[in-house]
Amino acid sequence: MNTTLRSGFLVLASLALSAPASAGPFENGLAAYNRGDFAAAQQIWRPLAQTGDPWAQKLPGVMYFNGDGMPQDGAGAIAWWRKAAELGAADAQFNLGLLYDEGRVLAQDDSQAAMWYRKAAEQGNAAAQYKLGLMYTEGRGVQRDNVLAHMLFNLAAMQGHADAQKDWDIAASFLTRDQIAEARRLASGWMEQRKRYADAQLESDAAGERHFLPMSGARTSGLVPKPVKTIRIGGDGRPKPE
């Protein structure tokens, strides 16, 4: 199967810069970056990044990697992306996964690639879902599992990922009808869990709390949701009792 599916390589230099919904300094930096005023973007983002804002931390990494207004510095990019990834920024998690996967700047490591892809995929990152699906088809860094690959391609395809839309059909050709039904059931269940998570997040935003969606390794460490369990984090950073 791995000879048929495309690599789905995404160039980090063309990383789309997305922002939170609310307006503020972050968006001002984004506007500066998009008009090519890299010095202004750096001046705005760096203080935010140094306070531990994961949205801001991933962006100096993009600038270092691309050489936007500064010499290219892969190690500097990774340092910022790792900080953002550890705080839950899905784009940064995907970038680390891709660098480990391709052996660019970082030493090639399938297990590390799969780990970071999974973290981003669990947050709904379509590119990470697709790349993790490829790893399941090839058995790289994970146990080979075409059902989970089909599920992941399905999730990415529903978000408009072009390669996943094509490879979803290819993956299906390696499965029985029962296996296809199982993959679809897993994808549907995961989407429902994500919806419930998003609804809970909206309800908690006003209270200054964050909700985390726990995921289970029940099926060969796949992207399978656990029964609903919400962890509330208060303003002091400590878990709050339900």
How are the elements arranged and paired?
Blueprint: H1 25-34, H2 38-50, H3 54-66, H4 74-86, H5 90-102, H6 110-122, H7 126-138, H8 146-157, H9 162-172, H10 177-205, E1 210-212, E2 215-216, E3 224-225, E4 231-233, E5 239-240
Antiparallel strand pairs: 1-4, 2-3, 4-5
Helix pairs in contact: 1-2, 2-3, 3-4, 4-5, 5-6, 6-7, 7-8, 8-9, 8-10
Overview of the molecule:
The protein is mainly α and 242 residues long. It has a single domain (12-240), classed as Serine Threonine Protein Phosphatase 5, Tetratricopeptide repeat. The chain has helices at residues 25-34, 38-50, 54-66, 74-86, 90-102, 110-122, 126-138, 146-157, 162-172, 177-205; strands at 210-212, 215-216, 224-225, 231-233, 239-240. Helix 1 runs antiparallel to helix 2 (38-50). The chain is globular and about 55 Å long. Residues 1-21 and 206-242 have low confidence and may be disordered.
